[in-house]
Design goal:
Blueprint (H helix, E strand, L loop, with lengths): L1 H18 L11 E8 L4 E9 L2 E2 L3 E7 L2 E6 L9 E5 L5 E2 L4 E5 L1 E2 L9 E4 L2 E4 L3 E8 L5 E8 L1
Antiparallel strand pairs: 1-2, 2-8, 3-7, 4-5, 4-12, 6-8, 9-10, 10-11, 12-13
């Protein structure tokens, strides 16, 4: 009888750790985005193409090109980006069909030289491949990722 009780207790402990503490684990949204760049507007657009809704306040975007990397969120408005804005439905939730964009500064030598977008020290320039990731700030897990060639 004691062996049975010990076995049941061990099984309960193992299943708790193997299954995780599901009550305390936050879920990461899974979403598809179509990403496009408009060099004339200095904006990178993220079109929500389906999946879970998400909030910009709990989202960050990572751009990687070669050895360069930058991470942007709504907290960076006025610092490394000019704007981090939702377009589409009202409210703060981005859902299928909605768009958000990140606006940077002109990377060229003049205001009319639209060969790239500057986000702080990171430059998205013509003829470069850029990997992008939309990341959940609460869990630090990737929501969606892809790459684009300017």
């Amino acid at each position: 009888m004691l062996m049975l009780a010990v076995t049941v207790m061990i099984a309960a402990v193992v299943s708790t750790y193997a299954g995780g503490f599901s009550g305390s684990e936050e879920n990461t949204p899974q979403t598809s985005f179509k990403v496009r760049v408009n060099l004339l507007e200095n904006r990178t657009y993220f079109d929500h193409a389906g999946g879970d809704p998400l909030s910009l306040s709990t989202t960050k975007v990572v751009f990687i090109s070669g050895d360069e990397k930058t991470t942007l969120s709504t907290a960076d408005i006025g610092k490394t980006c000019v704007n981090f804005t939702q377009v589409g439905s009202e409210g703060t939730t981005i859902k299928a069909g909605d768009t958000f964009y990140i606006e940077g500064e002109t990377a060229g030598n003049t205001l009319t030289d639209h060969t790239g977008i500057r986000y702080g020290s990171f430059v998205m320039a013509d003829e470069r491949e850029v990997t992008w990731m939309v990341v959940d700030r609460r869990t630090s897990r990737t929501i969606s990722m892809g790459s684009l060639f300017l």
